[in-house]
Amino acid sequence: DLSGLGLSSPLPDFSSLIALEI
Hints:
This protein is an all-alpha fold. 36% of the residues lie in helices and 0% in strands. It has one helix at residues 14-21. The chain is elongated.
């Protein structure tokens, strides 16, 4: 999810950031 990288939305998609950490 690009929004998790902050590319698609001004606020990070924390669920995507957590998925990247796993």
